[in-house]
Design goal:
Order of helices and strands: EEEHEEHEHHHEHEHEEHHHEE
Structural class: alpha/beta
Largest sheet: 8 strands, mixed
Radius of gyration: 21 Å
Strand order of the largest sheet: 6-7-8-3-9-10-12-11
Helix content: 25-40%
Number of domains: 2
Distance between the termini: 31 Å
CATH topology of the largest domain: Rossmann fold
CATH class of the largest domain: Alpha Beta
Shape: elongated
Number of strands: 12
Number of helices: 10
Length: 309
């Protein structure tokens, strides 16, 4: 399977904080790659770099095997990268069609649009993929589930082949969540789309992803095929994360990996392995050296000295 997107040694800093620290991440064409981690792990920052909303400080990005300079969302769109945001980015006073074409551009340019032609194109897309969106509807009149579909429709209208889905089901109820997940899967099957799926909902990520990466404080600590990592998480942080998933059987209890202390501040992260202050397996080496992400077999990568001996 070819690589759609490859990010190499990505570094992104903000005043006092290193949000991404030498991240290496690739997404294969036609797959769903899940990205997990607590708030502050750097997931959304990493994807915002790919969408051109943040400029990286160091590192390289390759799209379809070619190095790409993505310094704006317009550059990302030209490369076939779209984003469905966690917080809806629609302008309430614009219609669906105007939102899709104008986005956040000044509404004074609305008169330049060939509204009828654009509405016809968007309606054809919506009908074809059963999105149920009327292009003439004003955005403020849309329920939450349909607002999310407009974001998806916008990406498809702009020719996206790679979609970043940032918590796309976090603001909807269970029934709408199921509809959205089914729609994502149908679109991927029909169009051959590639997804990067960010979520705090571990069950949703398990349902939709082919591979999963776990981030902790700006680093990827584990990555594997979904079935493998959910059945056999190896990094102590990943074990604690996956063991927090409720078991739907009141007679069974899950043996939880010990998770000590509170998450450290990203302003002053620990030296060495960033997880070592909370890890029951930590040694003196962990306090002073940063563990590399190594392949422990079956495309399962883990950054932990205790597992690399």
């Amino acid at each position: 399977m070819s690589i759609a997107v490859k990010m190499v040694d990505i570094i992104k800093t903000f005043p006092g904080i290193t949000a991404n620290d030498k991240i290496n991440f690739d997404v294969r064409r036609g797959e769903v790659h899940g990205l997990l981690g607590e708030n502050g792990a750097g997931k959304t920052v990493l994807m915002n770099i790919l969408y051109g909303m943040y400029r990286l400080d160091d590192g390289l990005i390759f799209v379809n095997g070619k190095e790409a300079k993505i310094d704006s969302s317009a550059a990302a769109i030209k490369l076939g990268i779209g984003m469905v945001h966690q917080h809806f980015m629609l302008v309430a006073s614009l219609t669906v069609a105007e939102n899709i074409v104008l986005g956040r551009e000044p509404t004074k340019h609305r008169w330049l649009l060939d509204v009828g032609r654009i509405e016809d194109q968007i309606k054809a897309l919506s009908d074809r993929y059963k999105l149920g969106v009327d292009p003439k509807t004003v955005a403020c009149d849309l329920p939450v589930g349909l607002q999310q579909r407009v974001e998806i429709l916008k990406a498809l209208f702009r020719g996206a082949e790679v979609l970043i889905l940032d918590e796309p089901t976090s603001s909807v109820d269970v029934s709408v969540r199921a509809q959205l997940l089914n729609m994502f899967q149908d679109l991927q099957r029909d169009l051959g789309l590639t997804y990067m799926f960010i979520s705090h909902d571990l069950s949703v990520v398990e349902c939709i992803s082919h591979r999963v990466a776990v981030m902790y404080l700006g680093k990827i600590v584990e990555q594997a095929k979904t079935e493998e990592i959910y059945k056999n998480p190896m990094h102590p942080y990943a074990q604690a994360l996956f063991n927090s998933i409720p078991i739907p059987d009141p007679t069974r209890r899950r043996e939880r990996a010990p998770l000590l202390g509170e998450p450290p501040s990203p302003v002053n992260p620990p030296s060495g392995c960033r997880f070592h202050p909370r890890c029951s397996l930590a040694t003196n080496t962990c306090e002073h050296e940063e563990p590399p992400l190594i392949d422990v077999g079956n495309e399962h990568y883990v950054a932990c000295f205790a597992l690399s001996k």
